[in-house]
Amino acid sequence: MLPRAINYGGCAVSVEVAGPNLPATYTVVPDTIRTLAGQIINECVGRASRVGGFATLDIEKLIDYVVDPSSDLDRYSSSTAFLTVSITATNRKEPSPGNYDPAIADTLAGAARDAAMRLPAAGSARLTLVRRATNFRSRAMVMSVGGSTYTWWGERARKVGRRLWG
Questions:
Q1: pLDDT in tens, 94-139
Q2: Do 82 and 61 meet the contact criterion of CB atoms below 8 Å apart?
Q3: Which has the closest alpha carbon to 61: 37, 85, 77?
Q4: Is 79 exposed, middle or buried (0-12, 13-18, 19+ CB in 10 A)?
Q5: Potential cystine with 140: which of 56, 83, 102, 133 (Cβ 3.0-4.6 Å)?
Q6: Burial category of 113 from C-beta neighbours within 10 Å (exposed 0-12, middle 13-18, buried 19 and up)
Q7: Helix or strand or coil: residue 78?
């Protein structure tokens, strides 16, 4: 059952599905979670001043949705939800990096910008993607690592009734 947080000594491992429109079910194989956690440990844990990090699975579906100029970003499909595995120190209570970390907004901004540059300069599709890139970049600028105020899709977190992991 997700979200799930487990403490091991001084580390907390959290697994959750992220996005504005979550599906009723999300299937993931436990070995996949172990693999993602291993990648985080290899890349993020124990390096100078790094106490953890996160990895995603299936974020490509979200990126494909964002770079399709015909997609309605006011109504994200539940197929754009993605898995986030994170490792932090147990004394740090950070909300879902899949929803609140500026790296996600930056990734979407870069994907929209790159897709726009591959389109004809005068086209409306290119203008749509440039606007999306600008919007995601603006959102990333008001977000913070470990923050819980703004999501990458632009929603301001509600303090009441909003479950933040940890």
A1: 668 899 899 999 999 999 999 999 999 989 999 999 999 999 999 9
A2: yes
A3: 77
A4: middle
A5: 102
A6: middle
A7: helix
